Amino acid sequence: MTHKPLLATVLGEKQARPPVWIMRQAGRYLPEYREIRTRAKNFLDLCYSPDLATEVTLQPLRRFDLDAAILFSDILVIPDALGQSVRFEQGEGPILEPVTVETIAGLGKERAPLDHLAPVLETVRRLRAALPAEKTLIGFCGSPWTVATYMIGGRGSSDQAAARLFALRHPEAFARLIDVLVQTSIEYLVAQFQAGADVVQLFESWALNLDDEAFAAQVIEPNRRIVEGVRARIPNAPIIGFPRGAAGNLARYAAGTGVNALGLDYATPLDFAAQHLPAQLPVQGNLDPLRLVAGGEQLDRRIDAIVSAFADRPHIFNLGHGIVPETPIAHVEQLVRRIKNG
Ligand code: CP3
Fold first, then answer.
1. Do 188 and 78 contact (CB within 8 A), yes or no?
2. What is the pTM of this model?
3. Is the C-beta atom of 156 inside 6 A of ligand 1?
4. Is residue 169 flagged as an active site residue?
5. By CB neighbour count within 10 A (0-12 exposed, 13-18 middle, 19+ buried), where does 106 fall?
6. Which fold has domain 5-341?
7. How far is Cα 114 from Cα 122, in angstroms, rounded to an integer?
8. Does the C-beta of 155 come closer than 6 Å to ligand 1?
């Protein structure tokens, strides 16, 4: 039996009040984050500096009574570790040199990706040592399809057309890319558990825009292989899956991948989730981040609606996607107070 309420909830134990963390809880809405960010040469450098990354991870827990810390890093450290060129431009988001059928063949052959990620694992060890016993430490990686959309498209896009077409036109190269991502992600997550993570989250941020056949092949199967591969090394490893936009595929995703808990985006109707997901399946979510920007009475009302919709099952309160830089700190305080005190 664990004394960490958030981990216990992932493992299926309902709490009197839902534990809470916030996707992207370390980030630009915090002035202390922006200050540390100026000390790193660039964003990836921040991810690879254990001193700075540990500090940034802990910042939101100093301000708010959150139940978990999430490792400060990014899903795109894996393409970087595989040797692809990855840059983050202010105001533009990530920019990658797109992979091709030819470059996919050589991916990850020139260096051991885990060696490149050693500083991130050092951050996990330092966090483990620094965190109070009741706080859950969350590790993560991007799911293969989501990471592949950036590797193939070279940047974020609203429809992932480049990756969807590539998968259809070059099925063998695409399968090799997914295999490399599955294997690297398994090794990376196992190493995060060994360094002290309590639970990991698989970020499938682009689980939308896929027909059911592509969803089964590109989303369910690679995530299932990661869950299986991690648990072969870390028995019963606790895993949260967040397939953003999965909509009608949510129940299939949960059953097919074997994740312990299911992250819900904010467009998932509360009554749909209550009726269509297995009764005891732990869920996480799902406040619209813009409600947290606007604040006021609508925020309290929606928090209460989410808490009561999931009152009969294990529930972790979270946003339905990452917190945005415009979010007032006072509204985050209001949120956490409301969750903790009712
Ligand atoms: O949640 C946390 O606090 C942990 C840190 C974390 C970051 N990115 C830090 C970050 C996590 C878990 C991520 C995941 C991530 N990264 C996802 C999946 C979640 C999601 O939002 O859908 C994705 C798609 C990425 C890729 C990525 N990284 C994008 C598209 C961007 C640019 C958009 C933006 O918000 O600027 C990033 C950059 C990034 N990752 C920042 C942070 C704090 C901002 C960069 C900066 O400070 O300059």
1. yes
2. 0.97
3. yes
4. no
5. exposed
6. TIM Barrel (3.20.20)
7. 12
8. no
